[in-house]
């Protein structure tokens, strides 16, 4: 079934009212589509046209000045009209050469009525034809959509959908994918296919050609191209293309979803890997077996928590989305679920020197897309662990990612994704976190300030952090805390009484207090609260 569902200028020339006509210009434009017919007897028409109109005129507006026809014709060309039909005899006897030349340059048809005609009969005849074709197009599209849905429910590849598209349009079809796969319909020789590709490359704006990207989860998986050697691409063709592209995207999404579900069943060896149960060679062997042979330069682990609102479908689609983003940044993604965390192992396939910037680029893209914006409430903050060049040490990256996500709540930043590399002092503290005296030492330095805040609901600890971070600059500290100078001076006097007047001047004491502030944040993160003694117990 090859239903063009459009009317071209050349088709109209076969209507009864066009028996006595002559095409004097724009022969190459006879394939232009006609969507409506207008009778125009005014010169300024730019605001009156939408494109693809066939214009009928007696020429009365330029009868006394034939040069006005040139400007009139240029307006029609600029508006994308389908062609110009002029009645010869009543007001116009001839068409200037410069007008014919202009029309030929733009492949714009000029048709002369060689005898008087009734424009009302022409418009009625063509409009009835257009309306009937539009009604038929709606029926054909409905039929096509039903057949497309049937194939979507049953087929395993895209070939059948493209064949159905070819059956309905009769157009040449090319589907290119990001995996360097090309499907060409109808099947042709390599020479013809090469000529067609060159033509598409050389004339991408042709009216005989339309391209449409094939996108899944905001990633372009390829494109579909339709073109013809004989006629312009019409509205019906474009609607068929749009429906086919949507159906193919659903097919590819289904395939990706099934593949992702299969991947999630491989959790056993991944958990053993994270537990450090494999040597470097055993890790490589497992990766080749489960993921395929790859050149890996190391890797890291990204984790996040799912909220109570998150469904299994949400998690699967998040994995699909993250995979599409990070593949573009040079990472191979392996996923699992562990201890309440969603775990994304990112294996680096490019230079180890650029891994962090590429990962940051990927996360920025993730958090600025509609997909995550719609699902933000279902996932908590993300954390990235230590980068390891040895794959059998990926477990360490997971441990540091967990440590990072535990600490980030008390760091007071607005960042959505935190990196273990940026923890600095917290990483130092973590080296001796098992020391039972760590909490006691922290309270030795900070207890007076903590106790004062507790009794008087003050903000001395916050002031102390800001004052030290600003290297003792009162102006910068006040600015950071959004307080007036007098308020800051009062707080600093209190701190000097509680900590001693030398807590800034004595460099060793200042360094110890700064370290203990980091220890305080570390120990009082939400994940450590249950194991820390209360202030009153320590005081006793």
TrEMBL record:
Residues 460-517 form the PucR C-terminal helix-turn-helix domain. Residues 131-158 form a coiled coil. Keywords: Coiled coil. InterPro entries: CdaR-like_regulators, PucR_C-HTH_dom, PucR_C-HTH_sf, PucR_dom. Residues 11-129 form the Purine catabolism PurC-like domain. It comes from the Bacteria. It holds the Pfam family HTH_30. PANTHER family: CARBOHYDRATE DIACID REGULATOR (PTHR33744), DNA-BINDING TRANSCRIPTIONAL ACTIVATOR ADER (PTHR33744:SF1). This is Purine catabolism regulator. It comes from Fictibacillus barbaricus.
């Amino acid at each position: 079934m090859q239903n063009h569902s459009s009317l071209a200028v050349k088709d109209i020339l076969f209507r009864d009212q066009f028996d006595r006509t002559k095409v004097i210009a724009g022969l190459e434009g006879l394939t232009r589509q006609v969507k409506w017919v207008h009778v125009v007897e005014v010169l300024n028409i730019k605001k009156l046209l939408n494109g693809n109109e066939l214009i009928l005129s007696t020429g009365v507006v330029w009868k006394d000045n034939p040069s006005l026809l040139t400007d009139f014709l240029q307006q029609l060309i600029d508006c994308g009209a389908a062609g110009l039909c002029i009645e010869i005899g009543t007001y116009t006897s001839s068409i200037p050469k410069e007008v014919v030349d202009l029309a030929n340059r733009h492949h714009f048809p000029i048709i002369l009525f060689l005898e008087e005609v009734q424009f009302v009969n022409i418009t009625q005849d063509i409009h009835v034809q257009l309306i009937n074709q539009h009604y038929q197009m709606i029926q054909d599209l409905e039929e096509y959509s039903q057949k497309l849905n049937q194939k979507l429910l049953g087929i395993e590849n895209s070939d059948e959908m493209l064949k159905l598209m070819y059956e309905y349009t009769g157009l040449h079809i090319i589907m290119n994918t990001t995996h360097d796969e090309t499907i060409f319909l109808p099947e042709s020789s390599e020479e013809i296919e090469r000529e067609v590709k060159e033509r598409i490359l050389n004339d991408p704006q042709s009216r005989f050609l339309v391209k449409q990207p094939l996108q899944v989860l905001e990633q372009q998986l390829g494109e579909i191209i339709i073109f013809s050697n004989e006629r312009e691409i019409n509205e019906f063709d474009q609607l068929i293309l749009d429906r086919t592209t949507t159906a193919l995207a659903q097919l590819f999404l289904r395939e990706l979803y099934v593949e992702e579900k299969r991947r999630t069943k491989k959790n056993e060896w991944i958990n053993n890997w994270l537990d450090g149960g494999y040597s470097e060679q055993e890790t490589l062997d497992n990766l080749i077996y489960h993921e395929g042979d790859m050149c890996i330069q190391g890797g890291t682990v990204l984790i996040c928590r799912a909220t109570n609102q998150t469904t299994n479908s949400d998690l699967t689609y998040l994995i699909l989305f993250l995979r599409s983003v990070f593949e573009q940044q040079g990472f191979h993604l392996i996923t699992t679920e562990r201890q309440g965390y969603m775990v994304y192992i990112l294996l680096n396939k490019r230079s180890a020197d650029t891994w962090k910037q590429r990962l940051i680029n990927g996360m920025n893209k993730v958090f600025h897309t509609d997909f995550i914006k719609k699902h933000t409430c279902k996932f908590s903050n993300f954390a990235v662990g230590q980068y390891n060049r040895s794959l059998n040490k990926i477990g360490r990256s997971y441990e540091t990612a967990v440590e990072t996500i535990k600490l980030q709540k008390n760091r007071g930043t607005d960042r959505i994704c935190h990196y273990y590399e940026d923890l600095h002092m917290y990483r130092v503290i973590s080296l001796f976190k098992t020391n039972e005296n760590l909490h006691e030492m922290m309270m030795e330095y900070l207890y007076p300030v903590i106790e004062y805040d507790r009794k008087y609901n003050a903000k001395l600890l916050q002031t102390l952090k800001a004052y030290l971070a600003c290297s003792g600059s009162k102006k910068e500290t006040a600015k950071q805390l959004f307080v007036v100078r007098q308020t800051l001076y009062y707080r600093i006097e209190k701190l000097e009484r509680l900590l001693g007047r030398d807590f800034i001047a004595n460099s060793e004491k200042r360094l110890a207090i700064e370290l203990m502030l980091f220890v305080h944040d570390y120990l009082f993160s939400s994940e450590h609260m249950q194991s820390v003694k209360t202030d009153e117990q320590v005081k006793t």
